[in-house]
Amino acid sequence: MKRSATAVVVALALGVGAGAAMAQAKPEQLVKQRQSVMTLQGKYFGPMAAMAQGKAPYNADIVKRNAAFLDNLSLMPWDTFDPSTKDVKNSGALPAIYEQPGKFKEAASRLENESHKLYTAAQSGDEAAVKAQIGAVGKSCGACHESFRQKQ
Amino acid sequence: MGLFFLLCTTAAIAQGDAKRGEYLSKAAGCLGCHTEERKDATPYTGGRALKTPFGTFYGPNITPHPQAGIGRWTFPDFVRALREGGRPDRAHYFPAFPYSSFTRISDADLRDLWAYLRTLQPSAQPSKPHELGLVFQSRFALWGWKWLFFAPGEYKPDPTKSAPINRGGYLAVALGHCGECHTPRNMFGGPKKERYLGGAKLGEGTSAPNLTPERLKKYGDGELKDILTSGLFPDGDVMGDTMSEVVRNTTSQLTAQDLDALIAYLRSIPALPDEPK
Fold first, then answer.
1. Could you list the residue range(s) of the whole structural domain that residue A128 is in?
2. Is residue A123 assigned to a domain?
3. Are B240 and A47 inside 8 Å of each other by CB?
4. Model confidence over B133-191: pLDDT tens digits?
5. What is the ipTM of this complex?
6. Which residue among B12, B25, B132, B150 has its CA within the 20 to 30 Å range from the CA of A56?
7. Residue A91 domain-assigned?
8. In the beta sheet, which residues pair with residue B49?
9. Cβ separation of B232 and A47 shorter than 8 Å?
10. Global confidence as pTM
């Protein structure tokens, strides 16, 4: 619910101007933006993964907050993957993103869906389900990195 | 009494220790190629596709089933496969089966691995044939590959290095076969030795990163241990599927001592700059 409400607010705030603004963004800026989203996804996912793997004590409040952040962050990277960013230096994005747009879209949707499921699970407070879903989110990250990102 | 013990120990050595073999099998990552990729796949029954520039290889069934698996093999057959890269019928294996690495496995470890494989539940699942380009279909040509690039024999510890570094070297070189992906290959598919673990392109734009101190120096030992047990980088970044699986099946399964040794070894190898992109 919260997510769709946020989406509506964002859509209203940006209006139709968003598309035009996007078209003008410099490739370097788009890369910087998506790398920022990825950095924050790592920031909020990392501690949850540590909890799921038993490396850190489970904290339901942190999971609830981080899952909500991640649920929104998972929607943000995709409109920055513009073909104009292909030649930007310091980007690990592979050409496969633009050569196999269907497969890339699928990988992106998978992250969105798994992140949303994690948000729902975190609200329910079922620790075992939450931990399993953290694993599913991690797998969706890894699957996309496997095919579409230069190894770090 | 002493003689009794001696006999028992000798028998144990001759038969191999299946429990140790199970650990070695994890350290060697056998599961990865010899198991299908689907969720409910039975381990070691074969089926995983390995895509290479030379074609697609499928890891065969290695359970002790007499027809579908390796149930009719003898221990010398097993040794020939891993140490010499040869089938029981003397044909050569394709180096997609990393015998260039496995040849370095010690005699004792081969016995334990064999003992473990004999304990698996036999599965009748047939192995899939490889799908290879015409040029690469001939196993005879492999004779040339072996002559050029294959030097059989156990791992030789470096007497100038510490015991942990040598143990780590054995784990990385012989069992872990890290170089199969992380060392670049020449046009004939042979490893570029002077670029050992320097990182390599793997086709389809993907690559295996540099594992020499040049890149690893940015991580502390604790961070490296976390990376190799969690599949996550310190910033929460998640590694790609292939290495995630290696972490799940192999590096996270190592004893704390072996993991330390592996890291000590990686710290000791020559630092190499990244491959040009």
1. 26-148
2. yes
3. no
4. 776 777 777 888 888 889 999 999 999 999 999 999 999 999 999 999 999 998 888 99
5. 0.74
6. B25
7. yes
8. B58
9. no
10. 0.84
